[in-house]
Amino acid sequence: MILRNWFYIISTLSFIAICSALIAEFVFDLYPCSMCLKQRHPYYFIIFIFILFKFIKKFQILWFFILAHLAVIYGLFYSIWHVGIEQKILKGPASCSSNLNISDTVTKLKEQITNKAVINCEDVIWGYYGISAATINVFLLILIFIVNSIYLKNYYEAQKN
Q1: How far apart are CA 134 and CA 124, in angstroms?
Q2: pLDDT band for position 17 (50/70/90)?
Q3: Which terminal residue of the chain has fewer beta carbons within 10 Å of its beta carbon, N or C?
Q4: Angle at which helices 133-160 and 61-86 pack, to 10 degrees?
Q5: DSSP state, 127?
Q6: pLDDT digit string (tens) for 24-67?
Q7: pLDDT value at position 97?
Q8: Strand extents, DSSP E, 32-146
């Protein structure tokens, strides 16, 4: 049943993930870091292609699942990287740090302040029983990846027979 309705389930999971992130940001004032924002991209993309495939019937549904799979791989890259940054195992990009460099002039300092992220990626903004939102995102993306892989495998096996 899950595989039969996977087109709708993957889109619903993406919609719930985006709504949760936006509610956390705009209702509870939990501002995201630059890595958190990158982790939203796959969900936006899946919602976009869901709408595209739902309303434009000329596309073969297989392409939706292939594109969703690629989006999930992209999301896993940033999610796992973000968890590594939070655990201080990996180093984040320069845009992830709220540290300022020593500068000679006020102009350079002002430029640093306006170009730097306000939220440090190492800081866990929200967690549930010690599990950060980035870690929950990794679990969700792995779940989507596994079920999507099963769907694609079954699809190709059905095409062979």
Answers
A1: 9
A2: very high
A3: C
A4: 150
A5: E
A6: 999 998 888 889 999 999 999 999 999 999 988 777 888 999 99
A7: 62
A8: 127-128, 131-132
What band does 106 get if pLDDT is binned at 50, 70 and 90? confident
Q: Which residues pair with 127 in a beta bridge?
A: 132
For residue 69, the SS3 value is: helix
Placement of tokens 């180093």 in the chain: 91
Segment 75-79 shows an average pLDDT of 96
Can you tell me whether residue 132 is helix, strand or coil? strand
Contact 141/83 with Cβ under 8 angstroms?
A: no
Q: Which of 110, 81, 79, 115 is nearest to 97 (CA)?
A: 115
Pairing state between β 131-132 and 127-128:
antiparallel
* CATH number given to 6-160: 1.20.1550
Q: Where are the domains of the chain?
A: 6-160
